[in-house]
Amino acid sequence: MYIIWPSLGSMLFVILFPFLGIPIFLRTKRVIYSKYENGFINTSKKTFSLKTFLFRSFNVFLLCIGFNAALIGSGIIDQSLLVNNVQLIYLQSHGIEVQYSTDGFLGFTSALLPIAVGLLSIGWKFKDAGIIHFKLPEENMNELFEIEPIHYRYEGYIKGFAGISAILYYIDAIIYYVFYHPNYENFLPDLIFLSIFGFLFIISTIPAHLIYQKIGNKHFRKHLKAYKPITRSEFEK
């Protein structure tokens, strides 16, 4: 649960989600942004760097915390499913809720880490494929126009949810321990390990990132028209 599923699941979903999610998102976007056209530009191909991996992995970690706050905190998922019986008895004997324990958080993270990788990989592929949308005025009309990479729009929804949920989760956890269980001896270790072990889980996504780099962009540009980038000299009056 902690090693095999996060690795294998991430490898599968990093392939599956972009192929399914990108067409669905583009079709849904037509309803909301009906006046926008889609296309792509040939961006300079950059080698996948350690900085890119760490940045994307950090967003995966935040999204996992967001899932924790939304699904476990709301009671949608039974917390007892995330830990074994020995761990559950220990937490119950101390009156600690599973969602605020290291065991519970790691159990939930290992279960949904592949889904977080899959959802975010849609935005990664939007960016790497250079897919854009734009709304341009008619000829000789002084109107505002917009040209935007689609990954900004997609990732705005995902990262907004992940960031806010992660902050609320940690605030809620601190309040929970400080005001309701101030004598719990593992208070500080649990809060620290929630972060450290969460980042260690990201290591299991390395194979998924390597596979992702092998996925080309041609399929995702199908039926989209290529456009040239706009330079500063063309934009300035």
Question: What does this protein structure show overall?
Answer:
This protein is α+β, with helices and mostly antiparallel strands and 237 residues long. It has one domain. 62% of the residues lie in helices and 6% in strands. A four-stranded mixed sheet has the order 3-2-1-4. Helix 2 (50-72) packs across helix 4 and helix 4 (102-128) runs antiparallel to helix 5. The termini are far apart.
Secondary structure elements and their pairing?
Layout: H1 4-32, E1 37-40, H2 50-72, H3 85-93, H4 102-128, E2 131-135, E3 146-149, H5 150-180, H6 187-202, H7 206-214, E4 225-226, H8 232-235
Parallel strand pairs: 1-4
Antiparallel strand pairs: 1-2, 2-3
Q: Helix coverage percent of residues?
A: 55-70%
Strand content: 5-15%
In angstroms, what is the radius of gyration? 21 Å
The termini sit apart by: 59 Å
Which class best fits the helix and strand makeup? alpha+beta
Sum up the overall morphology in one term.
elongated
Total number of helical segments? 8
| Total beta strands | 4
Output the strand order for the largest sheet.
Answer: 3-2-1-4
- What is the count of structural domains? 1
Mean pLDDT: 81
Query: What series of H and E elements makes up the topology?
Result: HEHHHEEHHHEH
Q: Report the uncertain regions.
A: none
**Biggest β-sheet, characterized?**
4 strands, mixed
